[in-house]
Amino acid sequence: MKKKIFHENETVELKRSTSELKEAIISIVAILNKNQKGALYFGVKNDGTIVGQDIGERTIREISKTIADNIEPKMYPKINKININGKTCVHVEFSGNNMPYYAYGRGYIRIGDENKQLSAQELESIILKKHKGKLRWDTEICEKATLEDISTVKVKSFLRTSGLTYDSLENALKKLRVYQDEKLLNTAVLLFGKKPQSFFPNAKLRCAVFGTTDTAYPIDMKDFEGDVFSLIEKAEDYILQNIHIGMRVEGLQRIDIPEIDKEAFERRSLMRSAIETTTNMTQSISRCSRTVLKFGVLVCCMVV
């Protein structure tokens, strides 16, 4: 009786011989899309019976070439001739996390010990999952930035306001989840950078006053630079400087009455505008997030 020491599962595929190479390639793709690694054996029947595989001078090379020609994205498995219970077999070890993988132009996924062709919706789900982090500009790595570009004073101030403790700059940034794998995220530079515009030249605040609700005719316009928190403060100051102040007299006291009450625009509305702008820069185009106050007379926008 031939001894059975293998069985198929979600990460192992068994093939009697290389005559089933096409089906084997489909299995490799299905396993990668499900588990990102697996193993394939030629010379073992799918019930686990070891029968061996005739291996010529070109066998390993042909397996490698067929895999390279028919799997996208490219992956390069380890292919070795091995001996199992006195039988010569081929062991293929593979791994990859660049999903989805395709075999002969189609996507597959492993379900138990079977391969199922992926639907368009399932492929879309895999692609979205793969690019989940990349879809947000704020979670991307700022490649050229180092800890030297971050202001310790700004970080300490933010932590103090948030009721958090400071032990070191690196630990503080990790705690805030803006420092990963020894790299600063774009968020860290925009929030706490000494000179954020050195990395993002267009990350500026533009404030303008318009005489009417038509933004084609500005009366005044100014650009500001700095980190996001300072830009929010500058936006607030600009608004307060450019609204008319009336007055009323109560007894012997004069009470100033601003044209637009400070509570009407609230700092959180300015923060929302900045956040919406800086977290959605997924394309290399200019965008602006505007806070329009009282009939569109005043506009503040983050130009990015």
Which characteristics define this entry?
single chain; 304 residues; Methyltransferase, Cobalt-precorrin-4 Transmethylase, Domain 2; 3 domains; four-stranded mixed beta sheet; four-stranded antiparallel beta sheet; 16 strands; 31% helix; 27% strand; disordered C terminus
Structure commentary:
- There is one protein chain.
- 31% of the residues lie in helices and 27% in strands.
- The chain contains nine helices and 16 strands.
- The longest helix has 15 residues, at 21-35.
- Residues 278-304 have low confidence and may be disordered.
Produce a short descriptive summary.
This protein has 304 residues and is of the alpha+beta class.
SSE diagram, text form:
Blueprint: E1 12-15, H1 21-35, E2 37-42, H2 59-70, E3 71-72, E4 78-84, E5 87-95, E6 102-103, E7 106-111, E8 114-117, H3 120-130, H4 152-162, H5 169-175, E9 179-180, E10 183-184, H6 186-192, E11 204-210, E12 218-224, H7 228-241, E13 245-250, E14 253-258, H8 262-265, H9 267-278, E15 288-293, E16 298-303
Parallel strand pairs: 1-2
Antiparallel strand pairs: 2-5, 3-6, 4-5, 6-7, 7-8, 9-10, 11-12, 11-16, 13-14, 15-16
Helix pairs in contact: 7-9
Q: Can you name the CATH architecture of the largest domain?
A: 2-Layer Sandwich
Number of domains: 3
Number of helices: 9
The succession of helices and strands, N to C, reads EHEHEEEEEEHHHEEHEEHEEHHEE
